[in-house]
Amino acid sequence: YRDGDIVFVDNNSSPFPLIREKEYILELSDGRQLLKMVEPNRDGTYNLLSHNAPPENGVQIVAARRVRFVRKS
Question: ω before 17 within 30° of 0 (cis)?
Answer without folding.
Answer: yes
